[in-house]
Amino acid sequence: MCGKSSLIGLSQFMRPVENWSSSRYGASILDRDAINSCKLHLKILADRYKEKLEQDSFKPKMAGTGPIGVIEDEENAYTGTRDEKKQSPTTLNKILCLEELFSLEVWRASLAELLGTAVLVFAMDTIVISSYETQTKTPHLIMSFLIAVTITVLLLATFPISGGHINPVISLAASLTGVISLSRAAIYILAQCVGGVLGALALQSVVNTKIEQTFSLGGCTLTIVVPSANGPLVIGLETRQALWLEIICTFVFLFASIWIAFDKRQAKHLGRVVVCSIIGVVVGLIVFISTTVTSTKGYAGVGMNPARCLGPALIRGGHLWKGHWVFWAGPVFACVAFALYTKLIPSQLLHN
Rounded CA gap, 7 and 87, in Å? Predict the structure, then answer.
């Protein structure tokens, strides 16, 4: 009806023009060429509109098109019929974002994660070794301060390219809270693990065998074996205590610093330098607390970065694999707990 009425309106509009142009006074007032041009344009518009109506008439009626589709969509919203099934892959695709697995841009960004994690592992393990090798009175304090500075610098270096994760904990937490997709998180974590191995290889190439054996390449250890009068003695921290330390410290790390970076309102207000500095300071404080509170020889302190622990374990091996799962399971539990916490926050207080 709408199409027919439009055609009738166009034809009715053309008739007065034709009658007026053929009248005695029309030709003397209006230029005949302009009238003919106007008539030609109106005719072309009418023909095009008629062709469009004829094409639409041959299209099959689909659910979700026209007034009927609107009613069907409204009904399906309550009854959960086939349209709801059609929408579920869209939601799943939004979470997974599988096309990012083949995105050259994402893989290029992961190079920053790879290099950043490699430098992080090399620098942090070197700091751990040098802090104890120099035999200062406050090795934990010096180590924590240097780690805070290192992390701040590396975050500032990688943030413009990849978002500055350089830690599987941050990538996993970002995916669970909806900041990035699971596909991007998987690529980042893979790059971070490769970077951890490269960083450990670089460290192994510059230290002598004695330091490598004494400090286990600065890797994550729960226990070590030391000689004693009664033979080899295992010293360190119990697995249960180490697991709880990983969970608690990683959750505090996410809650006290990473959430500020995830919150666009706070991140914009504070600025990139301040946010990265806060993250570095929080990591330094947690490292200091975990190494001083336990006061246990053989325990390297809380990991909070599975990629950093994986590199030395793959390169050095041996006792570094004992309890290695703790440095993965603890952060994963903490990320899940952090994601649940963000879901409990009222939506009006979220600023993602």
Answer: 39
Q: Where are the alpha helices (DSSP H) in 163-235?
A: 168-176, 182-206, 209-215
From 129, 122, 127, select the one nearest 200 (Cα to Cα): 122
- Asked if residue 309 lies in contact with residue 321, where contact means CB atoms within 8 angstroms, the answer is no
Rounded to an integer, the average pLDDT of 216-241 is 80
Distance CA 331, CA 213 (A): 27
pLDDT digits (tens, 9 = 90+) for 121-171: 999 989 988 888 887 788 889 999 999 999 999 999 999 999 999 999 999
Give the pLDDT band of residue 266 (cuts 50, 70, 90): confident
Q: Which of 176-180, 214-218, 274-278, 340-344 has the lowest mean pLDDT?
A: 214-218
Residue 92 vs residues 96, 100, 186, 201: alpha-carbon distances, Å: 6, 14, 16, 39
Query: Position 191: which residue type?
Result: A
Long-range contacts, 140-148 (Cβ 8 Å, 24+)? 140/287, 140/288, 140/291, 140/292, 141/288, 143/287, 143/288, 143/291, 144/284, 144/285, 144/287, 144/288, 144/291, 145/284, 147/280, 147/283, 147/284, 147/287, 148/280, 148/281, 148/283, 148/284, 148/285
Distance CA 111, CA 116 (A): 8
Calpha distance 154→289 (Å, rounded) = 22
User: What values do phi and psi take at 223, rounded to 5?
Assistant: -140, 160
Let me know: does 21 contact 35? Beta carbons within 8 Å.
yes
Q: Is 179 left (phi over 0), alpha (psi -120 to 50) or beta?
A: alpha
Second-level CATH architecture of 105-349: Up-down Bundle (1.20)
The number of beta carbons lying within 10 Å of the beta carbon of residue 141 is 15
